[in-house]
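Much of what follows relies on a compact textual record of a protein's fold. The record below shows the convention in full:
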Amino acid sequence: MKDLFTKLLLPVLFFVAGTALFAQEMKYPFQDPGLSIEERAEDLISRLTLEEKVGQLMYGAPAIERLGIPAYNWWNECLHGVARNGRATIFPQAIGMAATFDTDLMQRVGEAISDEARAKYNVSVANGFRRQYQGLTFWTPNVNLFRDPRWGRGQETYGEDPYLTSRIGVAFVKGLQGDHPKYLKSAAMAKHYAVHSGPEGLRHEFDAKVSM
């Protein structure tokens, strides 16, 4: 469980916390950018109480003031442009971009979106805001297969072809996250779980029996 927590949560937590820590004297090893992500994660986890760890598992994560970690909201969207946070460049819907079969173009689209995402995040933090749709963790891309045209979210996907979806999805994620060897420009989180592409309306409660 500790290893899973480290891999899924802490690497992103560091770039979130970093803007609040730069003005503080470093008191703990996890604040030291000279250490590896793994070392910083190990140190931070060792300092969290069980209650604090549980609190970080919700999309609205509370601040841990005693360690200088600000509140953070993990929910943000950028399916085809930064969403729900003021003006932003809007690109065509995902299924339309996938129809180009152009992975280089998709990576450039991701880069443009993450440029705007970083700028908006910096403005929000500078003004003391850490609300929903203001963070750097994006619930994007939607890599479900569009297996039934009755599903109302088909336009969010890259279509029905698994190979095309994989190539377009990888290119988009690379664009969003950047190529820095240590830090993420933004954090992409591909969604959703397998067998999520409708048309059933009970996605949170039905028993999926998948044929292979």
